[in-house]
């Protein structure tokens, strides 16, 4: 079985070390890196290609801005946000939404579809 690749990017040293020590005990989890600075996260993801990125979640449950950009580039990545002040965490991931629209099977129907009419 392929190991679960995890990149930890929490900025508070004690919290980061706690997360690392907790998950490093499991043989199916491979810690591929540790990021200390928020500005280094995207480069770390690019270099290590983790399955999961664990980040420090600020005061609200909103996805951090740089994480939206990272999910756009790496849609298979899951980002786990761990807040300092609460006991719940949030996992973010990108999903492809498939939609369908019926149109008239004719030249005009195809042209209207292509024009967004």
Largest sheet composition: 5 strands, mixed
At the fourth CATH level, what is the homologous superfamily? Response regulator
Series of H and E elements: EHEHEHEEH
Structural class: alpha/beta
The number of helical elements comes to 4
Strand content: 15-25%
Going across the major beta sheet, what is the strand order?
2-1-3-4-5
Q: Do you know the CATH topology?
A: Rossmann fold
- CATH architecture descriptor name: 3-Layer(aba) Sandwich
Work out the count of structural domains.
1
**Proportion of helical residues:** 25-40%
Q: Which radius of gyration do the C-alpha atoms yield? A: 20 Å
Mean pLDDT: 81
Low-confidence stretches: none
Structural topology:
Layout: E1 4-9, H1 13-23, E2 29-34, H2 41-48, E3 52-57, H3 65-73, E4 78-83, E5 90-93, H4 107-115
Parallel strand pairs: 1-2, 1-3, 3-4
Antiparallel strand pairs: 4-5
Care to give the gist of this entry?
The protein is 32% helix and 24% strand. With 117 residues, the protein is an alpha/beta fold.
Explain the overall architecture:
- It is a single chain.
- The radius of gyration is 20 Å and the shape is elongated.
- A five-stranded mixed beta sheet has the order 2-1-3-4-5, with helices on both faces.
- It has one domain: 3-Layer(aba) Sandwich (Rossmann fold).
- By secondary structure, the protein is of the alpha/beta class.
- It starts with a strand and ends with a helix.
- It has four helices and five strands, in the order βαβαβαββα.
- The model has no long low-confidence stretch (mean pLDDT 81).
